[in-house]
Amino acid sequence: MEPRASRFEARDCILKPVGGGRMSFSDENFLLQSEAARHLYRKYAADEPILDFHSHLSAKEIAENRRFGNLAEIWLEGDHYKWRAMRSNGVEEKYCTGNAPPFEKFMAWARTVPHTLRNPLYHWTHLELLRYFGVTRLLDEKSADEIWNQANSKLASGELTTQGILRKFGVRAVCTTDDPADSLEYHKKIQASGFATRVFPTFRPDRALRVEDAAAFNEWTGKLGASANVDIARLSDFLDALAKRHQFFHSMGGRCSDHGLDRAYSEPCTDREAEATFARARAGKEVTSDDATKFASYLMLHFGRLNAEKGWVMQLHLGAYRNANTRMYKALGRDVGFDCMGDTPQTTPLVRFLDMLDRDNRLPKTVLFNVNPVDNYAFATVIGSFQDGSIAGKMQFGTGWWFLDQKEGMEWQINALSNCGLLSRFVGMVTDSRSFMSFPRHEYFRRVLCNLVGADMDAGLLPDDEPLVGDMIRRIAFDNAYEYFGLPSVEGRAVAPAEHARARRM
Fold it and tell me: Is the pTM of the predicted complex or chain greater than 0.85?
């Protein structure tokens, strides 16, 4: 490799120094610490399309092909990762979730970025600025004006609408996260428009489990009944309404359910017990914590069986401690960055839940996402206990999630899966994001993966067999997920858009 100059023009650089400044993560070899890693990434990973099978993107914004007015809109709206860092840097809430002017919010973030050294936000920030806007400067208070203007000029050109972004990054399919009571009207509009990127709903019935809050539960149940055209008076009506909505999601191309849980629910619950709990909640009466747990277990088995009947994938996001800060939860609500990693015991209830479904041969394809690295090896071994030979990689240990979707967390997950299962069958990365600026996370993951595998090749731990190892990399990047999820009308790898290749090489 040629010595790095103080100013260089490598096409694939993460950042090009301006004004003679030096940067240590500044070229096309970012995160790729060996020749084998670099070759694997460039030949087998960089230009693979994206199948983003778990996201929180807005179907409405995709359907309406939203054009963002400024960098703060596209970059800071809904991004609780950045908000957490800003709060840690002493930034007032009005610059995070509040009503401060967009440029002032951006400046608050720009002043925070230099303090994020060694936080993955520092990497993501500059990778996103380059891949979307061609920005090659480090972001700080001094460079903020120039970067603001450069990014806003690109946004004004109309290239980076929501649909333009999906095309640019070669996204073949996106699975959004949707409430069972949602009309899916925007999914209908997207499908009717003929937009090349497929956008599918994911069935997320978490609110069906929350019987402890009878008022909220009853309000939601009313919406569910209206959407399913079912008068919900008894538990059987409730289950029927959920099944009808599940079928409707299937008709709209949905092939996944998703469940955000502190732990798997696996307490035995009879039909009579579930009916009694449902009746108490519908009557506005208090439901005990034990009864609520049993009811949740009952419903999760119902959802698992519905998934198995239709060949869906069940995704379990386990272990987060949500809404840890009561004061801020009351002031701002959910999903604004006041959650943390939980330490609830996971293995025993998870094994019980999967086993309950497996006993009747009704365990669907399942992806387990873990948020606490203490449980990585447990999750990696749990999936091996329920592989049944019917589908390669039927049970999946999902990529590092939430607090673990960074270099070290990804490496921990990959190593645990490699040691206890089959890395070659892994379905790879997701954005798990509300931001249309998050697609470079797939690139970040692919670089981390290639670096690990390339280091093993250099150390003689893997054979120096490029077709063998390269095919595994390519499959993890796209093919495995493409085959595993079986999403309708999604094209395979062979016809990657030109825009995608250009985006990778800016």
Answer: yes
